[in-house]
Amino acid sequence: MGFISGIVVGILCGIALVYGWSQMMALRSRKREAKAADIKALGSLSRDDLKKLCGDNFPEWISFPEFESVKWLNKQLTKLWPFVAEAATMVIRESVEPLLDDYKPPGIASLKFSKLSLGHVSPKIEGIRVQKQKEGQVTMDLDFRWGGDPSIILGVDARVASLPIQLKDLQVFTVVRVIFKLCEEIPCISAVVVALLANPKPRFDYTLKAVGGSLTAVPGLSDMIDDTVQSIISDMLLWPHRIVVPLGGVNVDISDLELKPEGKLMVTVVRAKALKNKEVIGKSDPYVVLYIRPILKVKTKVIDDNLNPEWNETFNLLTEDQETQSLYLEVYDEDKLKQDKKLGVVALPLKSLQPDALTEFNLNLLSSLDTLKVKDKKDRGTLTIKVLYHHFTKQEQITALEQEKREIEQRQKLKESGAIGSTVDAIGGAASQVGSGLGAVGSSISRAGKFMGRTVTNQFNSSRRHS
């Protein structure tokens, strides 16, 4: 009897232990699920949300990295760099050298590479950010850094002297946007789009040094080269402008990747007041250069001997991305013997404009758009303009694309005939009134892919040290 009762008690105790253990495990499981739900909810909060919850107790060690680390990719890039650098050098020489000729500033007869090597130091990708995907596309942003050892020498043939200019200590800090167009055939990518994001501003730092001479041999040469570099990069690469490179062997429509005109900007340059006088005898002879792309500049007529000129001239310019683009206006003093002097410059962001609403602006002129270069804080006068932005319909967009080709062809013919020194020269007079203003249309230039550059935004920083 005692044996049987012992067995029963043992079984009951075992059942009680098993039941208690299962209840404890279930309780722990519920707690873990509750914690996981809380962590998931916290994970969806932004930095601002957490600061509101934590107040002054917000821990500074909490970070929200936008870019994912890719150390493995940098290791592979270091191994591949000798081959990548050789191929990239060929592409740059074939595609950029013709652009140097198109964008060369007044006073420079020839600008080309005398020597070009990207060196032995590979770039570094600090991280990758994958954007929201469109159907059939993958978009990635690469945090790109390069402090390389390239050997770049530009052969500069100016009117007063010819000398080689070495570009040293090149450092690049920018975010590169890469878009892959997907397809069903191997290698599953039909085209690649490359562009530089305007925010944060791309930074290109370098030193200019004359080889066997002095930079002072050609007055203003440093600024000329700097402006040329800025124009090419911003006009060809700065988002929304992009390079579209179709991959060989895959026949697919890539028109959706190319930049298209979004609207038209009608600009009336009305007048300027209290301009700064640059003449020793008499007064300045001002005119205004306006553009959205440097390669499609237009200008007003010259008003002689007047610091309060009135033009009342109207031009039409194409826009491709109202959110990121700006209208640039530069006022110059014409000098028939020397290079024209800049009286002031100003930029008007297009995102501030309301569609189909005529707006008048009184803009204060600055000595430079780069605040780091502004040394002269004196008043340079005001420029009055009237602006009307019109958003294109689909049919208007097609018409603008057709007009675009005609305008670029006209610029090329003027350049070949010697009427203008380069395609970035501003055109005025009767030529500027074609289609209610030359510069109404942008262009695409095919060089080692499709350079779909449109409109300068000048949103990057280029700093130099001269030796």
Automatic annotation (TrEMBL):
<comment type="similarity">
    <text>Belongs to the synaptotagmin family.</text>
</comment>
<keyword id="KW-0812">Transmembrane</keyword>
<dbReference type="InterPro" id="IPR000008">
    <property type="entry name" value="C2_dom"/>
</dbReference>
<keyword id="KW-1133">Transmembrane helix</keyword>
<keyword id="KW-0106">Calcium</keyword>
<dbReference type="GO" id="GO:0006869">
    <property type="term" value="P:lipid transport"/>
</dbReference>
<keyword id="KW-0446">Lipid-binding</keyword>
<protein>
    <submittedName>
        <fullName>Calcium-dependent lipid-binding (CaLB domain) family protein</fullName>
    </submittedName>
</protein>
<dbReference type="GO" id="GO:0046872">
    <property type="term" value="F:metal ion binding"/>
</dbReference>
<keyword id="KW-0445">Lipid transport</keyword>
<keyword id="KW-0813">Transport</keyword>
<keyword id="KW-0677">Repeat</keyword>
<dbReference type="GO" id="GO:0005783">
    <property type="term" value="C:endoplasmic reticulum"/>
</dbReference>
<dbReference type="Pfam" id="PF00168">
    <property type="entry name" value="C2"/>
</dbReference>
<dbReference type="InterPro" id="IPR039010">
    <property type="entry name" value="Synaptotagmin_SMP"/>
</dbReference>
<dbReference type="GO" id="GO:0016020">
    <property type="term" value="C:membrane"/>
</dbReference>
<keyword id="KW-0479">Metal-binding</keyword>
<keyword id="KW-0472">Membrane</keyword>
<feature type="domain" description="SMP-LTD">
    <location>
        <begin position="66"/>
        <end position="248"/>
    </location>
</feature>
<dbReference type="InterPro" id="IPR035892">
    <property type="entry name" value="C2_domain_sf"/>
</dbReference>
<dbReference type="GO" id="GO:0008289">
    <property type="term" value="F:lipid binding"/>
</dbReference>
<dbReference type="Pfam" id="PF17047">
    <property type="entry name" value="SMP_LBD"/>
</dbReference>
<dbReference type="InterPro" id="IPR031468">
    <property type="entry name" value="SMP_LBD"/>
</dbReference>
<dbReference type="InterPro" id="IPR045050">
    <property type="entry name" value="Synaptotagmin_plant"/>
</dbReference>
<feature type="transmembrane region" description="Helical">
    <location>
        <begin position="6"/>
        <end position="22"/>
    </location>
</feature>
<feature type="domain" description="C2">
    <location>
        <begin position="246"/>
        <end position="363"/>
    </location>
</feature>
